[in-house]
Amino acid sequence: MRVAVLGGDGFCGWPAALHLSANGHDVSIVDSLVRRRADEELGVQSLTPIASLADRVAAWQEVTGRQISTVEFDVAHDYDALVAFLDDTRPDAVVHFAEQRSAPYSMKTPWHKRYTVDNNLNATNNLLVALIELGLETHVIHLGSMGVYGYETVPVDLPEGYLTVSYPDRNGEMRSRDILYPTNPGSVYHMSKSLDQLLFQFYGRNDDMRITDLHQGIVWGTQTDETELDPRLINRFDYDGDYGTVLNRFIIEAAIGYPLTVHGTGGQTRAFINIRDTVKCIRIAVESGDQVTGRVRVMNQMTETHRVSELAELVADTLGAEINMVANPRQEADANELVVRNDHLLGLGLDPITLDSGLLVTEADLARKYGDRIDQSRIPAKSYWNSNRRSAVEGSSD
Ligand code: NAD
Ligand code: USQ
Fold first, then answer.
1. Which bound ligand lies closest to the C-alpha atom of 95?
2. What global pTM score does this model have?
3. CA gap 244, 393 in Å, rounded
């Protein structure tokens, strides 16, 4: 299939593009390279040394003989370039990763809040409008977030996108219908994913579009079978307080002897998926596009749930580390329960990699290998959700 990967230079997009290419798909990458500029803005670099996008695809061709084309433009703001690209490539599927994806980055300042909403919503809206303008029947696969459901304890296993509700009509007769699961985002970033859902619901219905929204959990790990083929193909590995996600941060922290940074009580329970499973899920979503008819297909792209404090203990026990309970810069519940359905992807053949697979040690080895690239001053999370959280952190003795 012809597959366009928007955001194909990023942490999930790059290995997904390689995995699709390795499996015989004709892949084109679009990226504005804004994520590399965010590293410059934040004064931090990926733990792993990442090659330029041009060098990456040249290496891929050298190693495998497979070609991936690339084009650089801003999907959110260069609508004409997007239309020209889609008209030229006429993809069977577009995988849309091209959004600002960090919750802490989205909460840093008014500029970061406005940038995240502007970038994420315009990227999604532009893509949908461009496909409609061109009359293409392209399957759109979007990377959404488990965070759209919110992280309060609820008495149900989180369903895949829709909730069946029953209510009395005006004559008192019971009715039943499926609604989008009530959204309850915990950051401006997560809110942008909640709003994306409405764009999909509207255009899906109005223009009969085929759309899959993947509600992905926190991705951990770095390398995949394809990125391991050559050092120039290595994936990025974020560890800083803005872009580093919890498990990858714990792995790096343990690897360099930095106490694990557990926020608050560590009672937050979250959904996780290894990057090797992310790329498989993307391929599965692409290759099962003909199953998408009618309403937006929502699949929960996660394989296991863990409480942050228990993750820290597991990492400490496996890799050897101290644990430091730090004041939480985020406005979030101290603790929550989380049970998630992921029947769709399991039914389509996903065979999950779980934390007990031994990959923790492999990842820690990688972190140690590049440990001298770490700037420890960039580890503490310093994006505060509101002034109360700032006071709590700045007033704490951590
Ligand atoms: P990333 O920041 O590493 O990659 C995103 C890529 O998109 C970057 O290369 C960036 O330059 C590009 N981009 C951003 N805005 C763009 C624009 N307007 N035009 C063109 N390119 C643009 O992030 P990631 O971790 O690879 O995440 C990819 C997607 O997956 C995001 O939408 C994110 O919300 C979602 N997701 C990520 C995780 C995770 O743990 N990393 C978990 C769940 C969902
Ligand atoms: N946390 C710590 N210590 C740390 C970092 C984080 O205790 O050093 C805690 C946070 O307070 C939070 C939890 O770990 O309770 C998860 O934080 P995270 O940064 O790992 O994940 P999050 O901000 O939710 O965002 C990440 C990705 C985002 C994706 C989301 C999936 O950056 O793109 O959408 O995971 S989910 O969380 O399922 O919504």
1. 1
2. 0.98
3. 19
